[in-house]
């Protein structure tokens, strides 16, 4: 038992068939590359869903995990632990936020933010509980975050949905204005919609939403699960748009591969009090030690400057590719989050050929693939990835 096809048979037999997988059995990763069970090498431009921000098995992250695994892995959260407090201090000192709570995933981070917004509504908005979110958004797979997500296909099989979410078009401030009532407690948005297909809003969108929220006394929650920790070229996506949210959620890139989530809040709206919220694993020493080591490295080594430089390089390369390949209709890119859109629904075929050519991509839409390489990807790796993508497209 060692071939990829054998493992795929095991999955078919034993695993819940909830995920449409690509036929690639990844057994090892190093930097921007992974290897499958048959020894084939791939450039990984999915990076664990924009999670492996320093690539696979970065020595700084590996060392932090190994050291922490031999020191202290889990305690009850009724005790203080040092890695959790190191990470809390680092995030708060480098953001516009005052307080942080650690969870285990993006959905869980958003659940906490939703609870906070409801509690805030009870205390300061006369019991208001509605949260305005955007169509084509993605906020997670739990029942509350499925209700928050503005994509019917994630919701239809699980009705009745949790009440209290109102959906409006993304990048449409008037939509938010028209949907705001006495019952509104918050607006929750992604700075750039990731799962929605790398939808980049107008430069003044978030600023205008911020002004509206201030005028109405409602919270602005930014779901930075995908955009946070450097993905857009700033530590947090809000910095790119010159706004400060009241509440922000993080997950994906924060753990550098280890599961973690967080919600952060300004002091004036941290409405949760002792007993309101908790988590058995949230903020455990292992996850927070990895997150601290990775985030510290990212800040100390100007990885954010590197992201800006690589954004220019990847953007230029993708646009050159577009000029050579007629099936590409649009390139969208912000930081190291990019989408290549095609003029028809061929992303399934593109992925099959991309796997063959040795480049892992995400089919984010039927007509678009998403690229989200590690933030320390090199220009040479980008060049190689574009060559492989071009080879894949030539087979279609
Ligand atoms: C991935 C994602 C989530 C959900 O995160 P999980 O860790 O899968 O629960 C929430 N919001 C955004 C913007 C995401 O990209």
User: How far apart, in Å, are the first and last alpha carbons?
Assistant: 33 Å
From the spread of the alpha carbons, the general shape counts as globular
> Taking strands numbered 1, 2, ... along the chain, how are they ordered across the largest sheet?
4-10-9-8-7-5-6
Task: Identify the CATH architecture of the largest domain.
Answer: 3-Layer(aba) Sandwich
Structural class, from helix and strand content? alpha/beta
Q: How big a fraction of the residues is strand?
A: 15-25%
Task: Write down the Rg.
Answer: 21 Å
Largest sheet: 7 strands, mixed
CATH topology of the largest domain: Aspartate Aminotransferase, domain 2
- Tell me the series of helices and strands, N- to C-terminal: HEEEHHHEHEHEHEHEEEHHEEHEEEH
Low-pLDDT regions: none
User: How many individual domains?
Assistant: 2
Mean pLDDT: 97
What does this structure look like?
The chain has helices at 4-14, 47-50, 59-69, 82-93, 106-124, 143-148, 173-179, 205-216, 285-300, 303-324, 347-357, 379-394, and strands spanning 26-30, 33-36, 41-44, 99-103, 130-134, 165-168, 184-189, 219-223, 247-250, 261-265, 328-334, 337-342, 359-360, 362-365, 368-371. The chain has 2 domains: 4-58 and 302-394, Aspartate Aminotransferase, domain 1; 72-300, Aspartate Aminotransferase, domain 2 (3-Layer(aba) Sandwich). The strands form 3 sheets. The chain has a 7-stranded mixed sheet with strand order 4-10-9-8-7-5-6, sandwiched between helices. The protein has 12 helices and 15 strands. The two termini are 33 Å apart. The chain is globular. Helix 4 runs parallel beside helix 9 (285-300), helix 10 (303-324) packs parallel to helix 12 (379-394) and helix 11 crosses helix 12. The chain is α/β, with parallel strands linked by helices. Strand 2 (33-36) and strand 3 form a beta hairpin. The chain is 37% helix and 18% strand. Bound molecules: pyridoxal-5'-phosphate.
């Amino acid at each position: 038992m060692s071939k990829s096809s054998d493992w795929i048979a095991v999955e078919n037999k034993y695993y819940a068939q909830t995920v449409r997988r690509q036929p690639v059995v990844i057994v090892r990763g190093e930097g921007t590359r992974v290897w499958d069970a048959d020894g084939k090498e791939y450039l990984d431009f999915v990076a664990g869903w924009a999670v492996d921000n320093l690539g696979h098995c970065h020595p700084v992250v590996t060392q932090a995990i190994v050291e922490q695994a031999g020191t202290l892995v889990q305690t009850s959260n009724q005790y203080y632990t040092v890695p959790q407090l190191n990470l809390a201090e680092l995030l708060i000192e480098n953001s516009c936020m005052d307080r942080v709570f650690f969870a285990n995933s993006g959905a869980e981070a958003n659940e906490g933010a939703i609870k906070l917004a409801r509690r805030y509504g009870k205390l300061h908005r006369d019991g208001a509980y509605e949260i305005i979110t955007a169509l084509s958004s993605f906020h997670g797979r739990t029942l509350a975050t499925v209700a928050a997500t503005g994509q019917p296909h994630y919701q239809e099989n699980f009705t009745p949905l949790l009440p209290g979410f109102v959906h409006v078009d993304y990048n449409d401030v008037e939509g938010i204005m028209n949907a705001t009532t006495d019952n509104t407690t918050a607006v929750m948005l992604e700075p750039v919609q990731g799962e929605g297909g790398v939808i980049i809003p107008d430069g003044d969108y978030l600023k205008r939403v911020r002004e509206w929220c201030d005028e109405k006394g409602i919270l602005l929650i930014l779901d930075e699960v995908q955009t946070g920790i450097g993905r857009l070229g700033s530590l947090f996506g809000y910095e790119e748009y010159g706004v400060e949210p009241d509440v922000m959620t993080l997950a994906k890139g924060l753990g550098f591969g280890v599961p973690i989530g967080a919600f952060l809040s300004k002091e004036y709206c941290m409405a949760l009090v002792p007993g309101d919220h908790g988590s058995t694993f949230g903020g455990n020493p292992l996850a927070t030690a990895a997150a601290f080591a990775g985030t510290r490295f990212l800040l100390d080594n100007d990885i954010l400057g590197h992201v800006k430089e690589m954004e220019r390089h990847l953007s230029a390369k993708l646009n050159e590719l577009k000029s050579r390949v007629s099936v590409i209709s649009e390139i969208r890119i912000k930081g190291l989050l990019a989408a290549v859109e095609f003029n028809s629904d061929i992303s399934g075929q593109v992925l099959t050929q991309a796997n063959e050519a040795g480049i892992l991509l995400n089919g984010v839409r039927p007509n678009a693939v998403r690229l989200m390489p590690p933030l320390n990807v090199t220009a040479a790796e980008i060049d190689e990835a574009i060559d492989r993508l071009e080879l894949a497209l030539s087979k279609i």
